[in-house]
Amino acid sequence: MARSHGARKASCAGFEQLDPVDIVERHQVAGRRAMIHAAGKGPPGNPANRPGSRVRRNKGPATSRARRCCLNRQTDLAVKNKSAGKRACMKEGYMLVEQLTTADWAPKDRLPYWNNLRSRMVGSFRVKQLDDGFSALMRRVSFPQCQIVSVLSSPAQVIGQGDYSSTMLNLQIQQSGRSLNRVGGRICDLDEGDFLLYDPSDETHHEYDRQVEFLFVRLPLSKVEQRLPHLRQAVGLKKSGKGGPAALFSHFLRSAWREFNDGDQGAWVHAVDDVIWSMLDLAYASERPEAGGRQGESRRRALFQVIADNLCDPDLSVHHIAKALGVSVRYVQMMFAQMATTPSAYIQNQRLDLAGARLLREGARCSITGVAFDVGFNDLSSFCRAFRRRFNVSPREYRAGVQGDARKLRREH
């Protein structure tokens, strides 16, 4: 039965008085109870715990499967509620800060939880601990055109399994410590301040025998192809943080990260992602193609221009693009295949990014339905589902987070 407006208002009022950390802890407790129940151990009042009970308990592989399923569900819950808690606390602005740690988990559950979390937040990886007492901490800052993820980890081996569905290019900066990396057929050591690019769809190997911290800048492939297509050719190439343009970029990003951790969310953060792209272009200037290799780049730029000019047209399709460029439909599809995506997926992501930017800019002044139709969607429900898949929150929550108004956050759990 639908709740009345008064009941919803009372629920929201109650939500305002809760500390976001308390919210997360309550859901973690609920998740652990679910884990116990899934393993065949009922709550204290359950007949399964009474002496002489004949209720059968799950054992063996079934219990392991139940535990893994419960860990996955609890990881989703922790990520979702941690994000909601941070959005409820943040100041006015669009920088969303999330923090997740293995410290809240039993030692035997930490590595499965971390493998699941890292695969969801950074790429498809399998982590193997190199000593007892594995521990790790992850923080993430989201911007309209990129994400920055900090990973602090005890000694481990990290094996990238090749996530072919990934639409991101990762830049890995050695924030502290030292690591051995095998990426794109290249092997290199990263010292503090050094960085390299890698594609999550490729198999990679990273190893460190002491505690380290990395900064990952997650770059959407669509933006890479549009703004800096030559970055794809620099995968696995080590950039030194000790001098030159690469050192300027490394110093800027690491300094900005320290400011984020100190709680500085001033007006300057609105320009951070644009500065990142500009400084990346400077850091990788030596990898720009020569004049002879500019034909393919010019074709890509013409392709992106056609899409940009007609992005909000609901009838925009691969056939429209091919006709505008004077090429075949197959040729357009092959161009997108080189970017590990499809024309429809690229167009939808561009429309969603445009919608997100407008929600960030206008806040409550804009209608979600109006934004959906303005950017080229024909159906509100399809827009909301696609928006949630891309940003992990609903359009309404995204808009509420921009305003920093906790009262407008919808309580889902």
Can you offer a commentary on this structure?
The chain has helices at 5-16, 20-38, 61-89, 107-121, 221-227, 244-261, 272-283, 294-310, 318-325, 329-337, 343-362, 368-374, 380-391, 395-403, and strands at 96-101, 125-129, 136-142, 147-153, 156-161, 168-176, 179-183, 186-190, 195-198, 203-208, 212-220. The protein is an alpha+beta fold. The chain has three domains: 1-49 and 58-89, no CATH class; 92-288, Jelly Rolls (Sandwich); 297-413, Arc Repressor Mutant, subunit A (Orthogonal Bundle). The strands form two sheets. The protein has a six-stranded antiparallel sheet with strand order 1-3-4-11-6-9. 30% of the residues are buried.
How many distinct folded domains? 3
Tell me the CATH topology of the largest domain.
Jelly Rolls
Number of strands: 11
Query: What structural class do the secondary elements suggest?
Result: alpha+beta
Rg, alpha carbons? 23 Å
Low-confidence stretches: 1-63, 82-94, 402-413
Q: Provide mean pLDDT, rounded.
A: 75
Q: How many helical elements?
A: 14
Q: Give the overall shape, derived from the CA principal axes.
A: globular
The CATH superfamily title of the largest domain: Jelly Rolls
